[in-house]
Amino acid sequence: MTTYPVEEKKTPIEDKGFFSSDSDHETGSVDTIAALVQEDHSHEIQLRTMSWQKAAWLLAGDQVCLAIMAQTWSLSVLGWVPGIITMVVAGALFWITSITMHKFIMKHPQIRDICDFAYYACGKSSIAYEFAGFMLLANNIMLIGFHVLTGAKILNTLSDHSLCTVVFSIVVTIMGIVCSAPRTLNHVSFMSMFSAACMGIAILLFLIFAGIEDAPFYGYGGNYPTLGAVKTYALPQAGTDWVACMNAVLNITFLWVPQILFPTFISEMERPQDFPKALAVLAGISSVLFIVPPAIGFHYLGQYSTAPAFGSLGVVAYKKASFAFVIVPTIVIGVIYANVTGKFIYFRILGRSRHAHSHTLTGWGLWAGLMVAIWAIAFVFAEVIPSMGDFLSLLGAAFDSFFGFIFFAIAYAQLYRGRYWTGPGRSLMTAIHIFVMACGLFLLGPGLYAAVKAIITDYSGATSPAFSCANVAI
């Protein structure tokens, strides 16, 4: 059953310019939000219960992830100057587009997920809704599959490949299904606290170990000292091709594009008006963790940097000690994506029936079935796709171009139609959102091309068979 979001009556919102406060944009929606919260709190299972503090933990749990440890490799490809510039620009655009997204949702507070967002941003287009739904399912389930594979890598590394990799993948999948039982993000936020903390410990241990060991060991171009003494450089090294640089840029960009989840997070806040507070916490954490550890890692690993950077450590004990903590965020982030994905399907099936928000056998049975199905499909993807990382780059270029850029440029156009150049601040923001749209289109063009080229290169060599027991330890 297809259920498109229902429009609510709202007081028109007055635009007071770029420097208006969030409350200026929320005034017309306060009554609608209060009604939505009141309706939700009359249910047995209440979703709109998160405080902004718990939302901040949820955001941190999603963003403080293993991908941070891939940024050292990006710097080793791009060099200091292009790499740091890309990180800073990506961070700035993340903040601006997220605020635009929040303002748009405050105008349409009935939005429950990114599909609803696309529906309203594209003028209540059912085509946009279905297209966004397809992208959400493909992107999220593949991403969960990547976490299944990552979990298997961690267990392989820690156990010295004591079991078949497929067995480890099954173990991770079962753990994910069990942890996905909670239906509210308010409960998942508790897991996120431990997830972010464990990833923080892993990063800290890596930095300590990278600093105290004599030299790294493994590098893509050869083990130390094949490529000479460790060195860093301002610009890409001679011989670095355009595809490698583009993939490094994509690697940085996709770390800053988690907004596919944000509408669902906002929809489960008791006061969605407070989301910018949670976003500010995330922005502060991300500004440090997305730049400082990769920079320190590049300083110590140089041209021997790998993705993730743990793989370059020379002492096996160091590698295991730091990589072990990543198992927690690997599971929890998969749980977050499974929750958002499951809710999209869940509410499409049950709509506004009592099973959707009550402790009924039908409701819980469907939820359990969805979690099993989502993780099972993700497990299959993890086992049958030879180069999961490159396929994620392909999906990222194809889908994150919309979820991180294009949809928000369109939403901005909807918010300020006819008022794009009404003052210096508004003109600046309009110009920035034109640039945002250009970035999205760039990802769809050259970005997609680079991702496809990387896949072709991988397939030109030896590929792993499906459901292989081969050791995938780092």
UniProtKB/TrEMBL annotation:
<feature type="transmembrane region" description="Helical">
    <location>
        <begin position="193"/>
        <end position="212"/>
    </location>
</feature>
<dbReference type="InterPro" id="IPR013057">
    <property type="entry name" value="AA_transpt_TM"/>
</dbReference>
<feature type="transmembrane region" description="Helical">
    <location>
        <begin position="394"/>
        <end position="416"/>
    </location>
</feature>
<feature type="transmembrane region" description="Helical">
    <location>
        <begin position="248"/>
        <end position="266"/>
    </location>
</feature>
<feature type="transmembrane region" description="Helical">
    <location>
        <begin position="428"/>
        <end position="452"/>
    </location>
</feature>
<dbReference type="GO" id="GO:0015179">
    <property type="term" value="F:L-amino acid transmembrane transporter activity"/>
</dbReference>
<feature type="domain" description="Amino acid transporter transmembrane">
    <location>
        <begin position="49"/>
        <end position="450"/>
    </location>
</feature>
<dbReference type="GO" id="GO:0016020">
    <property type="term" value="C:membrane"/>
</dbReference>
<keyword id="KW-1133">Transmembrane helix</keyword>
<feature type="transmembrane region" description="Helical">
    <location>
        <begin position="278"/>
        <end position="301"/>
    </location>
</feature>
<feature type="transmembrane region" description="Helical">
    <location>
        <begin position="80"/>
        <end position="106"/>
    </location>
</feature>
<feature type="transmembrane region" description="Helical">
    <location>
        <begin position="127"/>
        <end position="149"/>
    </location>
</feature>
<feature type="transmembrane region" description="Helical">
    <location>
        <begin position="321"/>
        <end position="340"/>
    </location>
</feature>
<comment type="similarity">
    <text>Belongs to the amino acid/polyamine transporter 2 family.</text>
</comment>
<feature type="transmembrane region" description="Helical">
    <location>
        <begin position="161"/>
        <end position="181"/>
    </location>
</feature>
<keyword id="KW-0812">Transmembrane</keyword>
<dbReference type="Pfam" id="PF01490">
    <property type="entry name" value="Aa_trans"/>
</dbReference>
<protein>
    <recommendedName>
        <fullName>Amino acid transporter transmembrane domain-containing protein</fullName>
    </recommendedName>
</protein>
<keyword id="KW-0472">Membrane</keyword>
<feature type="transmembrane region" description="Helical">
    <location>
        <begin position="361"/>
        <end position="382"/>
    </location>
</feature>
